[in-house]
């Protein structure tokens, strides 16, 4: 879908050129020519990017940047300015601008900066979504692993797991079907990979099986892959 961009720029020529360039990038643009109306639009609308001039009538860009950063949702801000001093750049970035472009600038440079802002925003969103998904409860048969509450239930009954047993179970359950060697489990769950400690993995898995398996001798969840390691059964 097209990206929505709010341009707050009082120079009509620059505003026209910026919106034309953004249209080439498949963006839908709204142009505001003074600070007060620009802030009102930025607070009321949902935009993927705000391109903000520093020197504006009625309210300057630094004030607008500060106000936009106080909102609960995050919108990337690319600041435009005729001022080139280091102090102005640092102040704009400290107030929350994502990037800074000094006039005069080429439209090719503007396009490159806009694309870079969009790439960073997409990466941040994808990272946040992965983190959120990683905290979702995992369910496998009658087993439920609640990562946020740090508890596991079997058929609705809370299991009495130690902290390391829970970490081991959660690590297995995040990648069902994948085979893990004892050395990999030591490295990922315990944080070290000394081969002499592989018996630690065996003892923890045996205790974990006694707590989660209906028949520990014939496990449904944590299965042995002979000569390799262990895996969590696919469901």
From TrEMBL:
SMART domains: REC, Trans_reg_C
UniProt keyword terms in alphabetical order: DNA-binding, Phosphoprotein, Transcription, Transcription regulation, Two-component regulatory system
Sequence positions bearing 4-aspartylphosphate: 53
InterPro entries per UniProt: CheY-like_superfamily, OmpR/PhoB-type_DNA-bd, Sig_transdc_resp-reg_C-effctor, Sig_transdc_resp-reg_receiver, WalR-like, WH-like_DNA-bd_sf
Pfam families: Response_reg (PF00072), Trans_reg_C (PF00486)
Keyword DNA-binding: yes
Protein name: Response regulator transcription factor
Organism: Variovorax defluvii
């Amino acid at each position: 879908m097209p990206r929505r961009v709010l341009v707050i720029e009082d120079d009509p020529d620059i505003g026209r050129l910026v919106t034309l360039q953004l249209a080439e990038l498949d963006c839908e643009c709204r142009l505001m020519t003074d600070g007060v109306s620009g802030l009102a639009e930025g607070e009321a609308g949902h935009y993927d990017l705000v391109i903000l001039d520093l020197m504006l009538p009625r309210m300057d860009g630094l004030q607008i940047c500060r106000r936009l950063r106080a909102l609960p949702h995050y919108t990337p801000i690319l600041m435009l300015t005729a001022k080139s001093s280091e102090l102005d750049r640092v102040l704009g970035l400290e107030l929350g601008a994502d990037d800074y472009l000094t006039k005069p600038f080429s439209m090719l440079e503007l396009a490159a900066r806009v694309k870079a802002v969009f790439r960073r925003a997409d990466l941040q969103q994808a990272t946040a979504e992965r983190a959120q998904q990683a905290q979702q409860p995992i369910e496998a048969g009658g087993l439920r692993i609640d990562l946020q509450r740090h508890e596991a239930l079997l058929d609705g009954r809370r299991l009495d797991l130690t902290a390391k047993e829970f970490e081991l179970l959660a690590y297995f359950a995040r990648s069902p079907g994948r085979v893990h060697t004892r050395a990999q489990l030591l490295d990922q769950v315990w944080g070290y990979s000394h081969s002499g400690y592989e018996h630690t993995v065996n003892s923890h898995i045996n205790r974990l099986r006694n707590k989660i398996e209906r028949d520990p001798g014939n496990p449904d969840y944590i299965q042995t892959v002979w000569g390799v390691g262990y895996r969590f059964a696919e469901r």
